[in-house]
Amino acid sequence: MLKRSLIVMHRWLGVALALNFFVWFVSGIGMMYWEFPGISEADRLAHLPSLKADLLQVPVADAFAAAGLESASDVHVASFDGRPVYRLRSGRTQRIVYADSGEMRGEISRQQLDRIAAAWSGRSVEAASIRSLDDVDQWTVQLPLAQLKPVWQYAWPTGEQAYLSQTTGEVVQYTTRAARLGAYVGAIPHWLYVTPLRKHGPVWSWVVIVLSAVATVEAALGLTIGAWTFSPFRRYRRGTLPVRVPYRGWKRWHMILGLIVGTGALTWVFSGLLSMDPIELPGDPPQTEDVADALRGPLRAEAFSALSPHDALTLPGASNATQLELISSGDRSFYVVALAGGGTRIVELSATVHESVATERIATLVKEAVHPEQVADLQLLDRYDRYYLDRHDRRPLPVILVRLNDPDASRFYIDPRTSRLVGTYSARNWVTRWLYHGLHSFDFPWLYRYRPLWDVVVGTFMIGGAALCFTSLVLAWQVLGRAFS
Length: 485
Description:
Blueprint: H1 2-31, H2 41-46, H3 60-67, E1 71-72, E2 74-80, E3 83-90, E4 93-98, H4 110-121, E5 129-133, H5 145-148, E6 151-155, E7 161-165, E8 171-175, H6 177-185, H7 187-191, H8 195-198, H9 201-229, E9 236-238, E10 241-243, H10 249-274, H11 289-295, E11 299-300, H12 309-313, E12 321-329, E13 332-339, E14 344-348, E15 353-354, H13 359-370, E16 375-381, E17 399-404, E18 411-415, E19 420-425, H14 430-441, H15 445-448, H16 453-483
Antiparallel strand pairs: 1-11, 2-3, 2-12, 3-4, 5-6, 6-7, 7-8, 9-10, 12-13, 13-14, 14-15, 16-17, 17-18, 18-19
């Protein structure tokens, strides 16, 4: 009786979820290689023009004074519409000061936006179709549009689309025809990122959580029924032949595939559910405030009086810069220079240029922040490990790994080329690391280090899951046909 009830429940949940399950697996193949379009920090830097040292006439102190700030949490020097600017941030407040005149940036005109769009895309705005966005569209559903309005979309016949905020003067989204196609076969169906649903964030979140939870139950039911029904000793008969599976046709294939990939399907959909944070997961990442503040503390103008941005850009090795970032670490200050074409340099206020911050210096800062007796190990990693990895190889390497001997075995990963904290891990955070990222993305070092092994394993699983779900679709169609005939 219990088995019969489970079969009925599994059958009708399968009718309801078969298509959704199938789409998740097929789009998972797309997600292996294509992401939802967005602008990364690397994209932003790649589109910045080189700074001209002779235009940087305003000292750091004057920029702080013009912005009305005594200190700041973040200061960059970069180009805006062909002119160098200081971008000073204090909390949620950002001030933009022109570095060639010392004036505050005023309201941004449409003509300026046109020039920015043309510079970013490398195309003339005369050839673009331009419209103002009154509401989010498919490519801006994840953006806080209300804070960025008015937003203008520039669309070229070649397929490029740039979205610019007139409030910030920045490109907030950029897509190409290929990127949009990749999203349509990957992220959009996989995340249910359809605009009418996704623009209502709480509703979208609730729908995905409920679907994932019910799908987890459905997968668990199927696996239970399959294990209960399967006979390793061939107690079933097909004619005169002993068999392990009592079904024929599509049901037989459904059970066989379920027994092969069912456990993976269950853990995969469950880990997808965890990605939506349906409940408060046990454990938190290690507290990073002390370490982050030690590496990049509050900025004060007087700390940079010994070397101006103008003089920093005239030094050998730092002249081809697209951005200067002001950094204060402990009692020392310096510039991080982003170079055109990639790469960074550290410019000390003593007018010396290095490729990275010395490991000993970072070690001293971290030890002062967390107490020396807590540091169990400090080493330079030149490849990813089990807690710091990226299948697209975008996260910086090498990094300095600092391991603490605290009860949570906290780990901090620091990029010596920028003095930035780029990764953390705590033993308390094992649920997110292994039950979500591990089970859902298969991001295990022994797979990532030997690609295309990861591609073969994950692709095979996705194809097997899609095949299982295809049999579910056929069976659901047959059930509905009988129900309405």
